[in-house]
């Protein structure tokens, strides 16, 4: 059911009739050719095979009223329900209520990186229920799965998504069966298994897992399954818009000047841009230029390589990096990331594994935030872009940390150990040379 008032504020942008209630979502549209489709568990255009995305009847009218309504909403992503493909009463349904994570003003890190005081922020998405940004996207896919009558939730995952799906399914009473590369970090494997769903390790890398899932969807074996990042991908992607909404609201309803975003498939980056564009269109923030920067690990940098070479197409790579959550060698949204980085005047850059580890420790040491390897990638790339004069240290900059360091302990375990191990005596402590 639509919340009272929203329907009358709505404008019709898509003419396909539908009985599915996903709030302001009015249909799907092809990102390539613009063809419209009714809301359903489909992800590719019948005409040109382009990716489908959600189209909306967004609320029209007084931005101040909408801003107030959002501010009065719950301290999670559902405060933005009027802008998401979810029913108006979504907050009353069993889900993990992710989002509204901290935007940390990172003055210590700013000092180290030579950024003007008060201008550098870390959006810390390790604070989500399963400790990564993936709870945002899964929460959207869950509502789509409910609307389409699926009873099993599934995904192909580089680790974090599997845990987020397992947890959301447990809470919402769905069966879950998730697929991961067999050689992931222990923290991610355990996290994916502990919620009691089925967890399947596939002998291969993420791209093999993804290919397998695409086959499963087309087979009777996968009937009735909602794959959050495959057949529910258009809905899933919309969850990343909430990062854009939160960042702007937390900055006092202002656009940042620069954002540094990690790239795996590229979905998050493209949808953050979509979210920023919506806020401008709705009059919730003042329009001004912003730059979007993409961050990859050198060992899996197909988008960065294409950006630097001036290419429009992304040539697949075989990943080899400690940043496993970003290890997608054939990123579905790669070309769109290139478009956005170029359109906004941003860039796509990469750092090597050693720089990732250094950046994890830099963020921990300066701000008390223990990031997973993906956060090491964004902080490392931020450092590099400042050193190269690409990122402007006088402008408001937001760096994303999308996951929790406890899931990727191996990255820093070797160099983060006890300073000393001593007998429990004052003499031993004195001998260790640690007193002031
Ligand atoms: C999935 C993931 C991302 C981004 O993934 P996209 O496929 O680009 O949307 C970023 N950081 C972490 C920790 C992730 O798990
Ligand atoms: Zn199309």
UniProtKB/TrEMBL annotation:
It comes from the Bacteria. Its EC number is 4.2.3.1. NCBIfam families: thrC. Transmembrane segments: none annotated. Belongs to the threonine synthase family. Keywords: Lyase, Pyridoxal phosphate. Pfam families: PALP (PF00291). Signal peptide: none annotated. This is Threonine synthase. Its cofactor is pyridoxal 5'-phosphate. The keyword Lyase applies. Residues 98-403 form the Tryptophan synthase beta chain-like PALP domain. It is an enzyme of class 4 (lyase). CDD domains: Thr-synth_1. Coiled coil: none annotated. GO terms for molecular function: threonine synthase activity.
